[in-house]
Design a protein that fits this description.
By secondary structure, the chain is of the alpha/beta class. It has two domains: 38 residues; 219 residues, no CATH class. Strands 1, 2, 3, 4, 5, 6, 7, 8, 9 and 10 form a ten-stranded mixed β-sheet that branches. It is elongated and about 55 Å long.
Length: 265
Amino acid sequence: MLKLAIAFVGAMAAASVLAGCAGNFDGGPGGAAGARDQQAAWPRGSCIGVLSTIGHSFTVKTIGLMVFGNEEKQVAIDSWGIDNLVVNRIRAHIGSQVTTKRIAYPKEALNSQGRRGLFAEYEGPLKTHLQALAPSERCARYVVVARRDTDYTGTNQTIGGLGIVRHTSFITHATFPLYSIFTLTVFDGTNWTRLRSLPAVAADQGPYMGVVRGPHVGIETAGWPDPAESAARSARLRQATSELVSQTLDRTLPYLRALESAGSM
């Protein structure tokens, strides 16, 4: 009888342990119940819409010792395919479980906005455009990749988007900074709440980290486009810019938590 009682207690204890393990597995963040909740939040067939506005122009900027030495030109670089590159990097980050779509944005609307310093000034027109597309696209999330302007340290000038800059001074430089400065913002596709907005993350080290407040690399002086319009035909600038944008996105996307649930669909 004593042996039977001991066996019964042992069986109950084992059952309790198994039940506890099962509860932790099913109810935990990575468990079956958590996965079911995430799947319920992301209906089958939903998508991520990506609207990139950084790939239409490249800035060639000179900052002089005096104000009359400042010069800036915008060069069209649509042929570089940067906006497609942005979509592909986001697609690679999210995975194949969710459809990633590129959302077109009229170039005329971009040009009419002019120079903007804060994403808040872009947000109204971009959100209006996305809302107009919503009935046909029906994406669960929309990611907007837009230019962000920042100060060029030690001057009264700003830089942003994609471009290259040289600062005329008494010091001879072996390289110029090529930069990729933008913001990623995620909107909920149902109620248009802004879920997260994040500036592009720069590498820990860079040749101009104290001057350029954003992702950048050094480009040798021989790579400077002269005239500025020749930038669009430069294979060196195209490759370097594409690599910088890819590296910048790969560093930044892991911090954009508003997209993480898509990977569990």
